[in-house]
Amino acid sequence: MANAGLDQKTLKAAIAKAREAAAVANAVEPRAESAYYDQSSNRIIINLKSGATFGFPPDIAQGLAGASPKDLAEVEVTPSGDGLHWEKLDADFTVPALLAGVFGTEAWMAQIKIKVG
Which of 31, 67, 87, 114 could be a cystine partner for 71, CB 3.0 to 4.6 Å? Predict the structure, then answer.
């Protein structure tokens, strides 16, 4: 199998650099500890590792709008805590983007008339 032109020294350096970047991101970016769908408030709730909580209505999120409560409840937090994933809905979001008010593509955001920034 070809190694795409990388020797072991270069590969080890790249891995070390990636691990360092991940450590920095983990230290400064918000990370989810858990997430769930609260049917009574119709909100996706994200409990952050900082102790803060963030929630949003699924109908403003691309790929979640119109989904059943059962499907919304199947939210998974990525191992790093930087993302949320719904396998059945094929929907993924980063926690930092959600906290910044980004709930989909620019076209989606324009469609639902939410201004970001």
Answer: 67
H/E segment holding residue 64? none
* Tens digit of each residue's pLDDT (9 = 90 or more) over 33-71: 999 999 999 999 999 999 999 999 999 999 999 999 999
CA-wise closest residue to 42 among 65, 25, 14: 65
Q: Which amino acid is at 66?
A: G
Whole-number CA gyration radius for the chain: 17
Q: pTM of the prediction?
A: 0.77
**Which of 29-59 are b and which e, b meaning 16 or more Cβ less than 10 Å from the residue's Cβ?**
ebbbeebbbeeeeebbebbbeeeeebbbebe
Q: Which CATH number fits domain 30-112: 3.90.1300.10, 1.10.230.10, 3.30.2020.40, 3.40.190.170?
A: 3.30.2020.40
Domain spans of the chain, in order of start: 30-112
